[in-house]
Amino acid sequence: MDADKKITTLAEIGEFALIDRLTKDVNIQNKSTIKGVGDDAAILDYKDKQLVITTDMLMEGIHFSLVYAPLKHLGYKAAVVNFSDVYAMNAHPKQLIVSLAISSKFSVEAVEEIYEGIKLACNKYQADLIGGDTTSSLTGLALSLTAIGETKKGQTAFRNTAKKNDLICVSGNLGAAYVGLQLLEREKKVFAESNVQPDFSGYEYILERQLKPEARKDVVEALQKDGIKPTSMIDVSDGLSSELFHICTQSGVGCRIYSEKIPIHTQTAKMADEFNMDPLVCALNGGEDYELLFTVPVKQFEKIDKVEDVSIIGHITDKTEGLKLQTASDHLVDLKAQGWTSFADHQEENADSK
Amino acid sequence: MDADKKITTLAEIGEFALIDRLTKDVNIQNKSTIKGVGDDAAILDYKDKQLVITTDMLMEGIHFSLVYAPLKHLGYKAAVVNFSDVYAMNAHPKQLIVSLAISSKFSVEAVEEIYEGIKLACNKYQADLIGGDTTSSLTGLALSLTAIGETKKGQTAFRNTAKKNDLICVSGNLGAAYVGLQLLEREKKVFAESNVQPDFSGYEYILERQLKPEARKDVVEALQKDGIKPTSMIDVSDGLSSELFHICTQSGVGCRIYSEKIPIHTQTAKMADEFNMDPLVCALNGGEDYELLFTVPVKQFEKIDKVEDVSIIGHITDKTEGLKLQTASDHLVDLKAQGWTSFADHQEENADSK
């Protein structure tokens, strides 16, 4: 925030005025939103459509640090990670509900910045902000968002429906958000020890992937335009290995992916190198990429091969073959389900997987 | 928890096993739930019905204290307060989404107890637990629940549709949860200072109202059975004054309520007396009663008068007359919109209003 901006304490404004201030410029964009903010509940009407609903909770110190995450980016990311789950169902986000717990040390303007980011994401992804809860916290900031999306019956993509021989595809590139986080953590430490201002030049892309990720609306739209319905789909929030583990376990299949097919951005590779990490491990276990991992029937090879920014990284195998990574030197390595390690120390656990 | 129960740390079990353990006995009860736990999002199909959606966030130290709130009760209450919002729309809860942030000092068994309470409430109110997020917290426990309910077009009750001359009705009785909290706070202090075990005998009702409230499913069902559609409705979470303020402001009307008509339980009156508080003030500003406050056309007087456990406490007036309380001595007093004071000190603010 600018130093000369007006600062209003939460205590002096109170709940009702705060909610008014946060929601006064919220406009409804979707026909399915009958009533948004302002009553005990919002009202939706999906008529002949089905709806998907998903939620994510972000806790200060676990999922973000206010030291380096600007509040507006934080709000934006919180919304985007929920929209990403909606796209991972092959659906389109339509509504968003926001719950926010903040300590009283926060100013109204700080809360408004978080909301600015949320509204920006809502506008970009055409979702209506329809309600929520704003309360206080004795300790850190907590954000809990719930997104609702629209899907046609039969169009929804699940995790448990991958079939043997399907091609495994992933959008964009992997590992960038993870190395971006490592860079932020390193610079935070340097700043704390020596007060040297961080220099991020040359690493703008990986920082943006960590601080202001996007959901792959474009990929879902491209697939629908090209008549490709994924046989299974999931978004990459915990890392490629973990998401493959979900798809394979739930579908009762195995998989084989090829290390040289896994898309990695040059900045990711360079940054990993600086940290003496294997870029491939960052891509496999990094998490927070919010790319889409999906499978398509092998007969759709030509179609999927033409879709922009999608890589074919392997194929689904029989369950008995397990989950395998074929390395550049043709070795077969077991993929480990890294899972999500929030209950252990998040950063350390990720680092351990090097 | 029993001392001899097995204790499993969250770190040793990990996310996937924890989710399995928490959701393995979740059964789907509603036709509108197409898919629950287990994918990026749940899927719902409301066909020709509309849906209402509401969320509430509960933070340790603000909304509850683990010193006196048993975990199972906490889970139960967290679900019920959301169902109460659904009923306040004249709708019926069908699905529930649960996000939970817990510090790693919590055991798996402790999380299971919270879920036990949530599932108990889901079973009682026939809602399906369809998903959520379980994550860690560096500090306190945070619970964020989102409930989805079903309503027929035209049946929904809003806050902004009360009409002049409508009767103002409230279910059950008011102030009990608030004095229950005062009692718990007092006994907590006594215990901390002198190690004297609390004696709650004679006050079981007000404790239950605080620790294990119920949503007024029965009242919504009774009204629907008797063909009464409230012209406006809200649930009493912040206190009668505050809810009347919402209805009147949003409807552009005034109101007059009568102090001797406001239903107060004998235990509430007795407890308030012990604390040298006016029971009426507890009823007006106490909050957490989760009763339904609603208005009906005056021509429905005879019908509503017969509905069990509903009191007529006043009527809607012209906006120019403001919000008034007529005392037993026939004085007219302004009702103050107490609002919700979470950003100031919750307990002190409530006490100030005495």
The total number of structural domains of chain A is 2
Subunit arrangement of the protein: homodimer
State the helicity of chain A in percent bands. Answer: 25-40%
Any idea what the CATH superfamily of the largest domain in chain A is called? PurM-like C-terminal domain
Offer a quick outline of the entry.
The structure is a homodimer of 354-residue chains. The first copy, chain A, is α+β, with helices and mostly antiparallel strands.
What would your notes on this structure say?
The structure is a homodimer of 354-residue chains. Chain A has 354 residues and is α+β, with helices and mostly antiparallel strands. Chain A folds into two domains: 10-151, 60s Ribosomal Protein L30, Chain: A; 167-352, PurM-like C-terminal domain (Phosphoribosyl-aminoimidazole Synthetase, Chain A, domain 2, Alpha-Beta Complex). Chain A has eleven helices and 13 strands. Chain A has helices at 10-23, 71-87, 108-124, 176-194, 204-211, 217-225, 240-251, 266-274, 279-285, 301-306, 346-352; strands spanning 33-35, 42-44, 50-59, 92-102, 128-136, 142-151, 167-171, 232-235, 254-258, 292-296, 310-317, 323-326, 332-334. In chain A, strands 8-10-7-11-9-12-13 form a seven-stranded mixed β-sheet, sandwiched between helices. In chain A, a hairpin with a 5-residue loop joins strand 12 and strand 13 (332-334). In chain A, helix 2 runs parallel beside helix 3 (108-124). Mean pLDDT of chain A is 88; it is low at 339-354. At the A-B interface, helix 1, strand 2, strand 3, strand 4 and strand 5 of A face helix 1, strand 2, strand 3, strand 4 and strand 5 of B.
